[in-house]
Write a structure and sequence with these properties.
Keywords: Leucine-rich repeat, Nucleotide-binding, Plant defense, Repeat. The chain is an alpha/beta fold. It contains 21 helices and 7 strands. Helices cover 54% and strands 9% of the residues. Strand 3, helix 11 and strand 4 form a beta-alpha-beta unit.
């Protein structure tokens, strides 16, 4: 088992590019399920043996036949263990001789000192300077058109570039909060239910919905809610213009005034919605990206990493000017030594160039996943089972990775690393986000 664990690091790095390695990991996983079954069976049979232990001491003479069922149970388990060991040896030899997996030491566990340091990485308000400047500009646009019937403002850009962050900054601006009676933040995404979306808007506006209300009833209720009122609505991650043109435009037209902010990856969506003002989020400059990198590592002054500036700029360039990628990489680098050798090994990681991953998951985003300890990766993948923006209980997320008592204590000590407390990540629950689901 120890030998196979040493191969896992190399196998996990190669599985995306090599089908044979992926199949090897599948066989190993199946074998581990068999091991779990054997342990469960042994514990079950062992508990039964303990219950009848007094009688076992008297298995002599004429009562010897009563001991045979217990011997038979033990033999069945022993045979399963022997077969499992043979299967595991075969898997090990296949990985060593055929796949040429390298014997690499597993990643060291995150120390308690580093757990404390990384638990509050990437503050909610930590954004690039371009985002702050754009926020100031767009708040002025919002306030200048606050008297319009339904003024639509589009924020357009590629995934991970900061559209949602910019919209959040505008949404949270105190000047915006003071102007509008009703405010709602709605994550739309590619697949949405019209009824559920109407319910979510009403919930944001503070309106109770009855169970079983129809689309027509909800639409009518929304219109009555905003009648002669002012509203501020953010439609985040819009893929189809119909969410406005067919669903929300008619009921919200009853409002006296309103602002609608639409974030989308696609120009044609913004144009179909007929936004009056379109803001394109541009890629970060390397200088701003470098500052975002070291600030996201909870470093107070640049001089602490001044000697790493050149290689830091290289890392920022590999992130493609995307703030999300820079922040994720900062989280990984914060767990490593601040030395040029350590950062150089990181930048030379083959995960940067994996060609078979979806575009959104290449490079920085995959590296942040790849650097997770093995026992935390299932927790991350578990999130992909939930629809985007759905509520996930933090306790459920922590428990999903618990397989042993050792894992339990480790995961509970790391739960703050798993859950970032922000506007969309709250203390007891969190929300699945788009970048997790892109896989």
């Amino acid at each position: 088992m120890i030998d196979i664990q040493c191969f896992l690091t190399d196998a996990e790095q190669r599985r995306t590019e090599e089908l044979a390695v992926k199949n090897w990991l599948t066989k190993l996983k199946d074998a581990m399920y068999d091991a779990d079954d054997i342990i469960d069976q042994a514990m079950f049979e062992g508990s039964k043996l303990l219950e009848i232990r007094p009688s076992l001491t008297r298995c002599t003479g004429s009562s010897i036949l009563s001991c045979l069922p217990n011997i038979r149970r033990r033999r069945v388990i022993a045979v399963r263990i022997r077969n499992f060991k043979a299967e595991l040896d075969q898997i090990f030899k296949w990985g060593e001789t055929v796949l040429k997996l390298q014997n690499m030491q597993p990643r060291r566990q995150i120390s308690s000192r580093r757990q404390t340091k990384t638990s509050q990485l990437v503050e909610p308000n930590l954004v690039g300077k371009e985002i702050l400047r754009a926020c100031t500009k767009l708040v002025v646009v919002v306030l200048a058109h606050k008297g319009k019937k339904a003024y639509k403002l589009g924020i357009v850009g590629t995934g991970g570039i900061g559209k949602t962050t910019l919209a959040q900054k505008i949404y949270s601006d105190h000047r915006v909060k003071e102007v509008f009676n009703k405010k709602a933040w709605i994550c739309v995404s590619q697949k949405y239910s019209e009824v559920d979306l109407l319910k979510e808007v009403l919930r944001n506006f503070g309106v109770h919905q009855e169970q079983g209300e129809t689309f027509a009833e909800l639409s009518s209720k929304l219109g009555a809610t905003v009648e002669k009122e002012s509203f501020f609505l953010v439609l985040d991650d819009v893929w189809h213009p119909e969410v406005w043109t067919n669903l929300l435009r008619t009921p919200l037209h009853a409002a006296a005034t309103g602002i609608v902010i639409v974030t989308t990856r696609h120009d044609n969506v913004a144009m179909a919605i007929r936004v009056e003002h379109m803001h394109r989020v541009e890629l970060m400059s390397t200088q701003v990206g470098w500052e975002l990198l070291w600030r996201s590592m909870e470093i107070n002054e640049e001089r602490e990493v001044k000697n790493l500036r050149d290689i830091g700029i290289e890392i920022v360039c590999k992130c493609g000017g995307l703030p999300l990628a820079v922040k994720l990489i900062a989280r990984v680098l914060a767990t490593k030594d601040k030395t040029e050798n350590e950062w150089r090994k990181f930048i030379e990681n083959s995960a940067w160039s994996m060609s078979k991953l979806p575009t959104e998951l290449r490079g920085a985003l995959y590296l942040s996943y790849d650097d997770l300890p093995r026992y935390l990766k299932p927790c991350f993948l578990y999130c992909a089972l939930y629809p985007e923006d759905s509520i996930i209980s933090r306790d459920d997320l922590v428990r999903c990775g618990i397989n042993t008592e050792k894992d339990m204590s480790m995961l509970h000590s790391l739960d703050k690393d798993l859950i970032v407390t922000t506007r969309t990540f709250i203390v007891f629950n969190c929300k699945s986000i788009e970048i997790v689901l892109d896989a």
